[in-house]
TrEMBL record:
PANTHER family named among the record's database cross-references: NADPH DEHYDROGENASE C23G7.10C-RELATED
A Pfam family that the UniProt record links to this protein: Oxidored_FMN
GO molecular function: FMN binding; NADP binding; NADPH dehydrogenase activity
Protein name as it appears in the record: NADPH dehydrogenase
Cofactor: FMN
Top-level lineage group: Bacteria
EC number: 1.6.99.1
Keyword Phosphoprotein: no
InterPro entries tied to this protein: Aldolase_TIM (IPR013785), OxRdtase_FMN_N (IPR001155), YqjM-like (IPR044152)
CDD domains: OYE_YqiM_FMN
Length: 369
């Protein structure tokens, strides 16, 4: 059997294959952070894709933690109840598990929808608000600097992550991912480029990891025993490797997260600094996953310009990662897992309504959910 189509365990959760739909912001929620019809059709599309798991977009734990005014939120019970209704519909057509990525954008909040423009919306402008971060250092020089969080405000954010985690369980999500990557709030605390604090949340690596580790622990306490929580990290800032966040720091963080009960480490990179110099190419982030994998016993997920079935299979065969996450590739080709199964001579379970479209010559490609 192709490794891509083997089962994998994320803690107590079993996936039928190792294809994960990575979180992708849709910027299509209401101004109140509530889901819309766009999410209904998008989640249903994900559910019928044949992937082993879908993790929905970065979902804010506070209103000021949204990347944009059109981000999904889980900071109140109305949002929870609407998501619960939609998840019930989605799970009626597919057994595929769904997860949610809980997030706070920190200094990268208060932006416009990406197709309408880039950059910060100022606090005194429509759809804008005052951002927060570890320190008063803006992402861009022209940004209104973020407010440096007080200790009490840090504790409130940690509590809001825990409350959102409880709502995620109540809504019916099968797994939670905490967003510690891409220059958002948790990453802002991790990197010395954005964290210039001189208290217990800044300075040493131990102190800079504290925000994420304490937040993870608060979430674990809020959910049932054995409920799975994973973490997405940026393995490097793609900046000065000595002074920025780097792979060595990511290895230490991953080990600490495993000790606290993380069921996987999802390895991305970048997003912390506007002048990052990313060398984009197929598999460009896979070496980071490969570097972390020997140091932890939980699954490591690779992501980043993995677009072909054979490419994904080779990563797994080489032992560079344990699972493969797809983002833009599955937006472009929502049936990517079907096509991967055909290329790798594997069978994939699909909805019975689609069985009649089994390609000629591939009569053993599809089975029913």
């Amino acid at each position: 059997m192709a490794k891509l189509f083997e089962q994998i365990q994320f803690g107590s959760l079993t996936l039928n294959n190792k294809i994960v739909i990575a979180p992708m912001c849709q910027y299509s929620a209401t101004d109140d952070g509530e889901i819309t019809y766009w999410h209904e059709q998008q989640w249903a599309n994900y559910a019928l894709s044949g992937a082993g798991l879908c993790i929905i977009e970065a979902t804010a734990v506070q209103a000021q933690g949204r990347i944009s005014f059109a981000d999904v939120g889980l900071w109140n019970d109305v949002q929870r109840d609407q998501i619960k209704t939609l998840l019930g519909k989605v799970k009626s057509i597919s057994p595929m598990p769904f997860g949610v990525q809980l997030a706070h954008a920190g200094r990268k909040a208060s932006t416009d929808k990406p197709w309408l423009g880039k950059g910060q919306i100022k606090p005194d402008e429509r759809h804008g608000w005052q951002t927060v971060s570890a320190s008063e250092i803006g992402f861009n020089p022209e940004d209104v600097p973020p407010h440096a969080l007080s200790i009490d405000e840090i504790k409130q954010i940690q509590q809001d992550f825990a409350l959102a985690a409880k709502r995620a369980v109540d809504a019916g999500f099968d797994i939670i991912e905490i967003h510690g990557a891409h220059g958002y709030l948790m990453h802002q605390f991790l990197s010395p480029l954005s964290n210039h604090r001189n208290d217990e949340y800044g300075g040493s690596l131990e102190n800079r990891m504290r925000m994420l580790l304490e937040t993870f622990s608060a979430m674990k306490e809020a959910v049932p025993d054995q409920y799975p929580i994973g973490v997405r990290i940026s393995a490097t800032d793609w900046m000065d490797q000595e002074n920025g966040w780097n792979v060595e720091s990511s290895i230490e963080l991953s080990k600490r997260l495993e000790d606290l009960g993380a069921v996987y480490i999802h390895v991305s990179s970048g997003g912390l600094h506007a002048q990052q110099a990313i060398k984009i190419a197929p598999n460009y982030q896979v070496p980071f996953a490969a570097a972390i994998k020997p140091h932890v016993n939980v699954p490591v997920i690779a992501v980043g310009l993995i677009t072909e079935a054979e490419q994904a299979e080779e990563i797994l065969l080489k032992g560079e990662a344990d699972a493969i996450a797809l983002a833009r590739a599955i937006l472009y080709d929502p049936r990517w897992p079907w096509h991967a199964a055909a290329k790798l001579d594997e069978k994939i379970a699909i909805a019975p309504q689609y069985l009649r479209c089994q390609p000629h010559g591939l009569k053993d490609l599809f089975s029913e959910f």
